[in-house]
Amino acid sequence: MTASISSNGFKAGSKPRPLLRISLGFLVIALVLGLLGDFEITTLDPWIEIERMVAGIITPDFSATEDLWSAVVNTVAFAILGVALGNAMGFPLALAFQFRAVRILCAFIRSVHELFWALIFLQVFGLTPLTGVLAIAIPYAGIFAKVYSEILEESDPAPLQTLPKGTSSISTFMFVRMPDAWAHFKTYALYRLECGLRSSAVLGFVGLPTIGFHLESAFSQGRYSEVTALLIIFYVIIATIRKWVHARLIPLYIILALLVIPWTGELATSNLVRFFTYDILPHPLRVAETFDMGTLSALGAWLSIMWNEQALPGIIATIILTQVALVGSGALTLLFFPLISPKFFNTFGRTTGHIFLVVLRSTPEYVLALIFLLLWGPSMLPAAVALALHNGAIIGHLIGRYTEDMDLRPDSPKGLNLYAYDVLPRLYPQFLAFLFYRWEVIMRETAILGILGIATLGFYIDSAFADLRFDRAMFLIIVTAILNIGIDTLSRYIRGRLRLRTTADVV
Amino acid sequence: MNFVKTLATAALIASLSAPAFAETFTFTAIPDQDDSALKARFGKIANYLTKELGVEVKYIPVKSYSAAVTAFRNNQVQLAWFGGLSGVRARNLVKGSQAIAQGAEDKAFKTYFIAHTSTGLKKSSSFPKSMAGKTFTFGSKGSTSGRLMPEFHIRKNFKKKPKNVFSRVGFSGDHSRTIALVQSGAFQIGAVNFAVWDKELKTGKIDTSKVSIIWTTPDYPDYNWSIRGDADKRYGGGFIGKVKKALLNMNDPNLLKQFPRNSFIAASNDDYAPIVSVGKEIGLLE
Amino acid sequence: MPLLELKNATVQYNGTAVLNNLSLGIEQGEKIALVGQSGAGKSTLLNLLYQQCKEDAALVPQDLGLVRSLSVFHNVYMGRLNKHPSWYNVVNLIKPLKKEVDQVLPILIQVGLEEKVFEPIRELSGGQQQRTAVARAIFKDSSIFFGDEPVSAVDEHQSHTVMQAISASHQTVVLSMHDVELALKYSSRVIGLKDGDLVMNEPSGSLKASDLDGLYKQ
Predict the structure, then answer these.
(1) Which end of chain A is more exposed for a tag (fewer CB within 10 A), N or C?
(2) What local confidence, expressed as pLDDT, does residue A2 receive?
(3) Do A126 and B70 touch (CB under 8 A)?
(4) Counting runs of H as helices and runs of E as strands, what totals does chain B give?
(5) Which of A381, A472, A476, A485 is nearest to A443 (CA)?
């Protein structure tokens, strides 16, 4: 093909297209990593299991789970308390977000997955509700602080110049910055509550009395009728969230949650002190009588073993899985969003699309990954597909909603042409912004799949907790946090370079 | 922080951590197999112990071996049904705690190596070295029969770490799932607790045309009831003895099948010396 | 000495002059109309003047400076945020106090917004929003009023009411206007700008609408 010369003298094909370039760059990276990584299909005989699964899906059994309703109530109660406390801590942090120390603290606490927070708090508080509530509240406080501060920054500065001189900073804040931000806060808090429900359910995997406790058992034992029933209940809770959550009812819900949560178990300061002053000290320091050269070299050896045998391979596997899952999420997003967009489907089609996306984004990645593990055997493949489906459904939902407000010219094309020539080019920057926002989240989520046995950092952290080696766990958690913060910084840099802006309150 | 604030905080935390007034005796059990209806199943044991001990006995379910150990360490449970390895870990962490009972089967426990039929591996009395290069799954990372002992024999016979012997190594999480994964071919070989295998075979959950035993490990000591050393102080002199007696006297098959054991016999910490040395040898104990 | 004074003021944006070497004085009690094409420098001049005395002046900027999610009442009340302690303001934000509503209401009646007291700004038309901003300026109770096209979206009938209200409640008024008739009617002096130059500075009484045509010709 010859390059056409347009009238103003520019070569038509030579205009730099940074968004296309960065997309292709990420695609190539993912393909290369996919070849290097452990992706294969190894199952011999998945059919018995698939038959049982299908049989389970069509025969949901709501009576199979012991204490089903208390698990459901606990799931909602932990989510409400965790998100409320996260909100209460995140808001003041958002106000202090101009301080670097606060930003670093928030980046750190949100870079640690809630499952790891739960595993840490299990050591300190045991199997008490405090463990569950804090495991949600702490990382969420970091997220709330970041998002709230971004929302406040975006509030319209125009009214400031008309304020009478001498207006106090509190009055200024309350009248100028809060009112516009408030609506965004509410939307975002509601979205976070949905996330909180998912987190709360997932905390059951490590022993808290939520739906995940039973879901994990039922799934790993192949009791698929029970799995189906649990998932249906969970989908209904999430799909109806806008119906039962109203700002006015929140205080009531918080009180109810405090009342229904099983406040069993004792708290002991000694556990807290022991954990932070003894358990997480690297082993050579813990056993050393005196601190001398011998201790120092033992510590060096410990660090070198931890780095070479666990951290480094863990980082590599985590990055491979993250990059492949990120690109997979992007590809699926582009496939999913038309399903709920009025530009492409009628009401009936969209309802079906909505149900499909709710199911995909509400099913914990862990469960999705287990299904694919049975289908394809163990490798990174099930994990990558599970992450891509889950995140593709989340971003697809956001982008689909975004198309609702898009104006089309009256004579716009239809179907595929509309998609390729009008809708996609217009929302592509938005799409990339969402995807890059999600990058860090996807990396954090690889952790939970480590628990499935894929050797990400999460796998080594889980192993360390299983071996009760909290020093190793803590070392690896810090490595993971640093990696996450690195990805977050890189993502922000790329978004800045590409001028990808999005309202913060949706991702 | 100023001094008064520190004091106030300390007082608050101390009041939170004061022991509950009604001294409930709490126990747990490692989740080593199908863990449906745990509360109903272990609730029966709790009822039995309540009757025998004259204090309120409660069972709390946990999700992992390490959670059981942590609960024991943090005094959230005072008694626990541990595996060999988790028992050693728990007793190392709680000074004065002791193994008081084990199942009659636990004196001579075994691990089965099981394989999918497509591997062509057959039952043999010598260690099946032809496993090398295949995919392999352990049970839980903290399991004696599903991790510690099979890893020990693999290292002994191959002189290599499992991940260098097999093309892929996984951790299924528990014994029932190991069987399911090997039966479906997701993994070619697995290591499973013999008692769980025998029970699932009896209940018809295993298709022997798909999965079969290829090797049985030599005997080793496994599961045990361990109790915290401070139980006597907290629940009255001779309490540990009473618990031990109640366990040894448990003869209702309905209760025993939850474990699944035929009866309980006396045990001591020393019975688990072999586990300690194996655990140290392969680096799972420090 | 004039109330406001500019001497040889020059303003440039990216190298392009917006105001050229402009000198001007405004006496207390004057009602000034700034007229000229868009881009002539009216807003810049208005802002320059406002900066000189912003402590005792009320401003209706072109973008109005309203808080869109707050009600008309709250936006008007903001004109006196400095008169009350913070806690009082916050209470009044959460639950409008009767005492404050009673003070705001007469001004809203003046500008014809008495039926929209508790409507959020974003629900209002452009003209209603402008009237809210004017009401806020009046409520501020300053002696000088600055307005950048404060009635451009208000319908003809009401624009007179609003202009009268502005004039009546401020000693000195400086407005940029594009409606020549209104400018002449409610000002004592007209200042005409063209491409950043001061090209007209006349008492309004001596001018007819057609005299201003020159300002709008290329």
Answers:
(1) N
(2) 40
(3) yes
(4) 12, 11
(5) A485
Q: What is the pTM of this model?
A: 0.85
Establish whether chain B is in contact with chain C, requiring a minimum of 3 CB pairs below 8 angstroms.
no
SS3 at position B166: coil
Rounded to 5 degrees, φ, ψ at B29 are: -145, 145
Q: Are residues A300 and A448 in the same domain?
A: yes
Report residue B107 as tokens: 């004196």
What pLDDT score does A503 carry?
A: 54
Residues of chain A with pLDDT under 70: 1-16, 44, 264-266, 451-452, 501-507
A213 is a domain residue:
yes
| Domains held by chain A: number | 2
| Residue A182 lies in domain | 64-160+169-279
User: Could you give the CA distance from residue A317 to residue A181 in angstroms, rounded to a whole number?
Assistant: 40
Contacts of C69 in chain A (CB under 8 A): 179-180, 182-183
Residue that is last in its domain, among A251, A279, A307: A279
Tell me how close the Cα of A155 comes to any Cα of chain C, in angstroms.
Answer: 9
Which DSSP category does C198 fall into? E
| Confidence at residue A15, expressed as pLDDT on a 0 to 100 scale | 60
Print burial letters for A93-124: b (CB count within 10 Å at least 16), e (below 16): bbeebeeeebbebbbbbbbbbbbbbbbbbbbb
Q: Cα C174 to the chain's mean position, in Å? A: 7
Do the beta carbons of residue B72 and residue B228 sit within 8 Å?
Answer: yes
Nearest CA in chain A to B25: A265
For residues B231 and B236, give the distance between their C-alpha atoms in angstroms, rounded to a whole number.
Answer: 8
What's the topology of domain C4-216? Rossmann fold (3.40.50)
Q: What is the pLDDT of residues C18-32, one digit of tens each?
A: 888 888 889 999 999
